[in-house]
Amino acid sequence: MGREHIPYLDIKGFQGLFTKSTPEVLQAEQLSIAQNCDFFEEYGAIAKIRGSSRVLNTPYTEGGSAKKITWVEFFKSADLDGTILRQTMVSAGTVLGRVENGVVTPLLTGRTADLYHHSTFLDRFMFVTNYDPDKVGVGDDLVKYDGAVFTKWGVAPPGAEVTVVEEFDDASAWTPTLCDLSDQASGTTGHITWDGSAVRIDAAGQSGPPIGSSPFYASDVFSFEKGHAASGFYAQGDTRENEEATRNRVSFFTYFPRGSLTKSLTFPANQGFKTSGPVLSVYVSPDASTTANNNWQFDFTNGVIREGWNKINLDFASGAPGSGQFNSPVGQQTGFFYPEDQTIRRTRFEFYLSTAQTVTSGLRIDKYQKADEGALVASPSGVSGSLTGVYSYKVVYVSKYGSLSNAGPASVPVTAASHLQIDLTRIPVSLDTQVTARRLYRTVGNGSVWLYLDEILDNTTTTYTDIVADGSLSNETAPQAGDFADDNSVPPRCSIVYAWKKTILMAGDPQNPYTLYYSEDAEPESFPLINALDMDAKITAIYETYAGAVIETETGKWQLIGDNPDFSFDKIVHGMGCVGRRAAGNARLIGYSVDRDGMRLFDLSETQKISEPIRDKYDSSTVNKANIELIHTVHSRAKNMILQFNPDASGDYSSIFCYQYPIDSVEVGYWSEIVTPSAANLNFQDATEIEDSNGQFQILAGGADGMLYRLFNDSSKNWVDAAGVEYPIDTKIRTHYLRAGGLGAEVFQATGRMNPHTIEIRIGNDDACTWTATVELAKGITQTLATSSSEMLLQFGLNDGLRRMRVPSAGSTPEEYVRLTFQNAQADVYTKILAARFSYKTQPANFIDGDIDNTIA
Questions:
Q1: Lowest-confidence range among 325-329, 330-334, 688-692?
Q2: Does residue 661 fall inside a structural domain?
Q3: What pTM was computed for the model?
């Protein structure tokens, strides 16, 4: 007589997490827990993930405190001598730096701490932005990196350099009339600023006599004013004896909330601001105590002001407001004010409401600034030459990389009598260190087009003598903002950048969230003003597939095909879109993005939702919907892996999803979760994959603790924290509750209640190790507490491949469902499970009327 046939369940060909489906339709290989597992080491098996290691010797600190590393990127390019540069770049605290020999070498300081960055590569440059996609003005200069130094991205024209005079950091310094003023600070919840500190204005309509010197309205006016330092806010720095110079310009930013500017259907009683005459008047005066007697009054109407942020320019170069001179600003002059000789000692902002009953709140004013002149001074010398007529000049900056700025303001036109030469002085000098030369452009006599004259091969010389005849000028015209032929406008302040086909695409401008900007072809520093397209929703991400580029919005997916400037845009998918700029990328030949329902692949033809097996995790608090826009992802070519880092309610990245796929079949993959030890306080802010000097790929992640980590390091078998303390990796897999008969075992008469017999694990072993196996029996798949549970320690020596243990019968109650858990939480151990087997004996089923799932036998 043969041995007794003992039925069994084999578990092999592990398929990762399947937490959305009912266990009744799942296979044993489809798991309820897959924690710290690697499906890529050996296909079909489950291995412990490799450990982490520290890249920096010590955490990055400023002022003795650890600072977050919020951006990690890899720079690879050929140097000027042909060698290949491979560098790891980071944003740490207030610096952008390069990681060298275990330390961060600062390359750019004074940056805003804790801002996430976005970057792209074109030619030999890395282009970087840290602007916030949702908050206006939160960010620093757009920069580029050439392998050695950071410089500004784009070349600003003459006259673009501004000096910020912080007049709006203390509301109490202003004197209000019929309004309340309060301080606003960037980063404070509910506060709105353009860039840093601002003043908020709240006002109720008032009736009464005129306020100050207002000549327009006898009521419904509120204002605030302030005196400036003795040196004056607006200091020309020139005695103005030479009227052939262009005056400085002054500007500020003001914010009108949505629904405040005009009457609406929703709030018909609130009439908003005046629809005829000015909405805002700005009075500037040379008198320290009052603006009433001597002032220039600049007026801005409802057609000029927009809801949201407005840049308001005060033009001192075109004559007094209302003077009737060519291009003179709207407004009027009271008394005497000569900006060519005097400075601004007092400013008043005056607003005009429609009615005395109108209430307005939430206005802001921010960033008082003055711009440099930007134009040279031209003076006929009286010396014999070749110039006759009226002439004007413009200046263009040239960077050391060969990029040109737009032309600055035109010089004041001068008249040269018959056959004279013209002396040029006060030629603008750029404060931008990348500028190494300047080009001069000039009109022909009595002309209106500026043509190339000459190039000054330095950034220091401020004089030039022009003796070039009109006929000797080049046909090259000066680049101008808005010019269809040649516009070298600097890139917009966007939060999303992506290089595609020699063009840089930009989006994520909080003032224009629907707008996609793109550079000139093969000119990544020039963004013509006409190179802008509007989508139908907020743009959230840009990536590419083998077929073209993908523009993701909150509600759809657009394809971008063709060549610059003949791009073709088409909306391919509606109703689903990426949640944020760091939640999308490219995996092999296909793109991926995270939306509010999960992760999808997209090839510009169709989408495939690869996260459906764990849909419940996206629907639960595991993915915090309040901070879903902050999800960041990284794709690893070395591990065939996409990691998704999920922020919790506090913004800490406490959850990590891992998706791995075999070979190049991105569509067929397995999900698991990466769980770090709570004691290590690991909070990964950003991650990327770099290439080391040996051509091997490494995943690096920046921590909130100031440490740069290497993840999945083949040389490590433990987690490590910023201090170098090591923690064991806790790898755990668990099946769902399985019913033997439901798996086809009825043909072997293996149905009914199971009485556990043996548990077996087959491993591919690198180290001696111990796996803990737990067998749980239950009456049904939703039983909260198992009817009985048995735990066994399966110990493996070196090169052991199989262990089998009998399941203790004491305390074991036969049931129809079984759940198996395998766990290894040993330090300094790497091991993998190839397959497992659970053997059992059966006895007749015990049929019970009623709810059996939560009944304890």
A1: 325-329
A2: no
A3: 0.90
